[in-house]
Protein backbone atom coordinates (compact mmCIF):
# COMPACT_ATOMS: atom_id res chain seq x y z
CA UNK A 1 0.00 0.00 0.00
CA UNK A 2 1.55 3.26 -1.11
CA UNK A 3 1.43 6.68 0.44
CA UNK A 4 -1.88 7.37 -1.33
CA UNK A 5 -3.37 4.26 0.29
CA UNK A 6 -2.34 5.47 3.75
CA UNK A 7 -3.97 8.86 3.12
CA UNK A 8 -7.08 7.26 1.66
CA UNK A 9 -7.46 4.99 4.70
CA UNK A 10 -7.05 7.95 7.07
CA UNK A 11 -9.60 10.01 5.15
CA UNK A 12 -12.00 7.04 5.11
CA UNK A 13 -11.60 6.48 8.86
CA UNK A 14 -12.20 10.17 9.65
CA UNK A 15 -15.18 10.37 7.27
CA UNK A 16 -16.80 7.27 8.75
CA UNK A 17 -16.29 8.63 12.29
CA UNK A 18 -17.89 11.95 11.29
CA UNK A 19 -20.81 10.07 9.67
CA UNK A 20 -21.35 7.98 12.83
CA UNK A 21 -21.35 11.11 15.01
CA UNK A 22 -23.79 12.85 12.66
CA UNK A 23 -26.12 9.82 12.67
CA UNK A 24 -26.00 9.61 16.47
CA UNK A 25 -26.84 13.32 16.84
CA UNK A 26 -29.64 13.08 14.26
CA UNK A 27 -31.30 10.07 15.90
CA UNK A 28 -30.93 11.66 19.35
CA UNK A 29 -32.49 14.97 18.26
CA UNK A 30 -35.24 13.32 16.22
CA UNK A 31 -36.41 10.66 18.67
CA UNK A 32 -35.09 11.29 22.18
CA UNK A 33 -34.12 14.84 23.21
CA UNK A 34 -33.93 18.28 21.67
CA UNK A 35 -33.65 21.85 22.86
CA UNK A 36 -35.97 24.85 22.70
CA UNK A 37 -35.03 28.50 23.13
CA UNK A 38 -37.56 30.41 25.22
CA UNK A 39 -38.27 34.09 25.79
CA UNK A 40 -41.15 36.22 27.00
CA UNK A 41 -43.43 36.34 30.03
CA UNK A 42 -46.07 33.76 29.07
CA UNK A 43 -44.61 30.98 31.24
CA UNK A 44 -43.84 33.01 34.39
CA UNK A 45 -42.96 32.03 37.10
CA UNK A 46 -41.84 28.58 35.91
CA UNK A 47 -39.67 29.91 33.08
CA UNK A 48 -38.15 33.39 33.40
CA UNK A 49 -38.62 36.33 31.04
CA UNK A 50 -35.01 36.36 29.86
CA UNK A 51 -33.89 34.09 27.05
CA UNK A 52 -33.36 30.52 28.15
CA UNK A 53 -32.77 27.07 26.77
CA UNK A 54 -34.98 24.11 27.65
CA UNK A 55 -33.91 20.52 27.15
CA UNK A 56 -36.98 18.68 25.88
CA UNK A 57 -37.55 14.94 25.79
CA UNK A 58 -39.66 13.26 23.12
CA UNK A 59 -40.20 9.83 24.67
CA UNK A 60 -43.27 10.70 26.79
CA UNK A 61 -45.34 11.74 23.78
CA UNK A 62 -44.54 8.50 21.97
CA UNK A 63 -45.93 6.45 24.88
CA UNK A 64 -48.86 8.76 25.70
CA UNK A 65 -47.47 9.81 29.07
CA UNK A 66 -48.31 13.50 28.84
CA UNK A 67 -50.47 14.88 31.63
CA UNK A 68 -52.01 18.03 33.05
CA UNK A 69 -49.42 20.52 34.22
CA UNK A 70 -46.70 19.31 31.84
CA UNK A 71 -44.88 21.90 29.76
CA UNK A 72 -45.06 21.11 26.05
CA UNK A 73 -43.33 22.59 23.02
CA UNK A 74 -45.63 22.86 19.99
CA UNK A 75 -45.44 24.36 16.53
CA UNK A 76 -46.84 27.92 16.39
CA UNK A 77 -50.19 28.38 14.62
CA UNK A 78 -49.20 31.88 13.45
CA UNK A 79 -45.78 30.92 12.08
CA UNK A 80 -45.22 27.17 11.51
CA UNK A 81 -41.45 27.70 11.44
CA UNK A 82 -41.47 28.73 15.13
CA UNK A 83 -42.32 26.79 18.27
CA UNK A 84 -44.18 27.91 21.39
CA UNK A 85 -43.93 26.64 24.95
CA UNK A 86 -47.19 26.09 26.84
CA UNK A 87 -48.44 24.37 29.97
CA UNK A 88 -50.96 21.59 29.34
CA UNK A 89 -54.21 22.30 31.23
CA UNK A 90 -56.54 19.79 29.62
CA UNK A 91 -56.53 16.41 27.95
CA UNK A 92 -58.85 14.95 25.34
CA UNK A 93 -62.43 14.97 26.62
CA UNK A 94 -61.85 17.60 29.34
CA UNK A 95 -64.05 20.71 29.58
CA UNK A 96 -62.03 23.92 29.84
CA UNK A 97 -63.62 27.22 30.95
CA UNK A 98 -61.73 30.41 30.17
CA UNK A 99 -62.25 34.18 30.22
CA UNK A 100 -62.57 35.45 26.64
CA UNK A 101 -60.95 38.86 27.16
CA UNK A 102 -60.03 39.56 30.79
CA UNK A 103 -59.15 43.20 30.05
CA UNK A 104 -62.62 44.21 28.79
CA UNK A 105 -65.17 41.79 30.25
CA UNK A 106 -65.85 38.82 32.51
CA UNK A 107 -67.39 36.75 29.69
CA UNK A 108 -66.46 33.07 30.02
CA UNK A 109 -66.63 30.30 27.48
CA UNK A 110 -66.38 26.56 27.91
CA UNK A 111 -64.95 24.24 25.32
CA UNK A 112 -64.32 20.50 25.16
CA UNK A 113 -60.78 19.52 24.29
Instruction: Give the biggest sheet.
Output: 2 strands, antiparallel
Query: How much of the polypeptide forms β-strand, as a percent range?
Result: 25-35%
Derived structural class: alpha+beta
Number of strands: 6
Using the 3D structure, state the CATH architecture: Ribbon
Count of distinct structural domains:
1
| Order of H and E elements | HEEHEEEE
Count of helical stretches: 2
CA-based shape: elongated
- The amount of helix comes to 25-40%
**Uncertain runs with pLDDT below 50, 5 residues or more?**
none
Query: What is the residue-mean pLDDT, rounded to a whole number?
Result: 87
Q: Please tell me how large the radius of gyration is.
A: 23 Å
N→C terminal distance: 68 Å
Q: What is the fold named in CATH at topology level?
A: Umud Fragment, subunit A
The level 1 CATH classification is: Mainly Beta
Task: Give a brief rundown of this model.
This protein is an alpha+beta fold and 113 residues long. 30% of the residues lie in helices and 28% in strands. It is built from two helices and six strands, in the order αββαββββ.
Plain-language structure description:
There is one protein chain. The chain has 113 residues and is α+β, with helices and mostly antiparallel strands. It has one domain (3-112): Umud Fragment, subunit A. The protein has two helices and six strands. The protein has helices spanning 3-32, 59-62; strands spanning 33-38, 52-57, 71-75, 83-87, 95-99, 108-112. The strands form three sheets. Strands 1-2 form a two-stranded antiparallel ribbon. It has a two-stranded antiparallel sheet with strand order 3-4. β5 (95-99) and β6 form a beta hairpin. It is elongated. The N and C termini lie far apart (68 Å).
Amino acid sequence: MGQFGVYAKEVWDNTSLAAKIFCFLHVTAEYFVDYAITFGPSMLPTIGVEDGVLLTEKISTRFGRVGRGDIVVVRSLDNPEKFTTKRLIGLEGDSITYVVDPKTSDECKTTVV
